[in-house]
Amino acid sequence: MQRLFPAPGAPPAPEDVFAEYAYPADRPWLRANMVASVDGAATAEGRSGGLSSPADKHVFRVLRALADVVLVGAGTVRAEGYAAVLPKETFPEVREAAGQPPTAAIAVVTRRLDLNLDSALFTGRARTLVITCGAAGAERIEAARVVADVVVTGDDTVDVAAGIAALHERGLTRVLCEGGPALLRDVVAADALDELCLTLSPQLRSGPAPRILTGPLLGIPVRLALTGLLVSDGDVFLRYEREQRRTR
Fold first, then answer.
1. What are the phi and psi torsion angles at 36 (to 5°)?
2. How many Cβ atoms from other residues are within 10 Å of residue 139's Cβ?
3. pLDDT at 132 (0 to 100)
4. What is the pLDDT of residues 193-226, one digit of tens each?
5. DSSP letters for 160-203
6. What is the pTM of this model?
């Protein structure tokens, strides 16, 4: 892995990768981590795994190790087979040194709460959160409360901004959004995105795969500023910040 921007240099040491992706210390911060092929596909055969690589998986683990909470949509939970984060999947020694719990929590955004409440998603060291709305129904919401902390925001649709605010109120201020594309679009529309980490995979896919954002057109294009660029075996690791959020 080699840095090309902002300061070209030799490959960072493993511990320096954490510094590359450190969260701002003085404010809540929401970053998204996505992967896409060169022609813009955000999935391969319905999942992001086919676009990943060993270097991308390493960055994925680093970002989870730094986060307080992983924000993800229910569709991605089902497609990718999400489970609670295990300490061995990240870097528990880094989290311990930073005074964080052994793992990040998972927060699932779901309108209908159509989740398998008996799955491994709800058995981790950190209690899973569910961000839903009244449309899920009182019975389903009460069933979810048995295995998760439930946040109800909105009546017919999930109020994403209110859900993120609820995470902050719980002290979960370093938020990592892993998508999918519909949730990331809603996060951007809610003016909640601070940073985008995008792995560009050296593949051409074509087909019907979505882009990293999908859904209704954003009213105003969101301007990003490039803040970092790493390369490894053809993968390009891009970091962007919202222009009005820039910290460096």
1. -150, 150
2. 9
3. 98
4. 999 999 999 999 999 999 999 999 998 899 999 9
5. HHHHHHHHHHTT--EEEE---HHHHHHHHHTT---EEEEEEES-
6. 0.94
* 11 domain residue, yes or no: no
Give the amino acid at 205: R
- Sorted by sequence, the CB contacts under 8 Å of residue 144 that are 6+ apart come out as 113, 115, 117, 130, 132, 136, 150
Residue 40 φ then ψ, to 5°: 95, 5
Q: What's the domain range around 72?
A: 26-216+224-245
Distance CA 114, CA 136 (A): 8
* Total domains present in the chain: 1
- C-beta separation of 167 from 197 below 8 A: no
Please count the residues of the chain: 248
User: 29 pairs with which residues across the strands?
Assistant: 174
Name which of 78, 143, 140 is nearest 113 in CA terms: 140
What kind and span of H or E run contains 142? helix 138-145
Residue type, 237: F
Which CATH number covers residue 53?
3.40.430.10
Q: How far, in Å, CA of 137 to CA of 236, rounded? A: 43
What contacts 24+ positions apart, CB below 8 Å, involve 237-241?
237/1, 237/55, 237/56, 237/59, 237/197, 237/198, 237/199, 237/200, 238/196, 238/197, 238/198, 238/199, 238/200, 239/21, 239/195, 239/196, 239/197, 239/198, 240/195, 240/196, 240/198, 241/194, 241/195, 241/196
Q: What is the mean pLDDT of the chain?
A: 93
Indicate whether 51 belongs to any domain.
yes
- Buried b / exposed e over 187-202, threshold 16 CB at 10 Å, is bbbeebbbbbbbbbbe
What are 45's two structure tokens? 């055969």
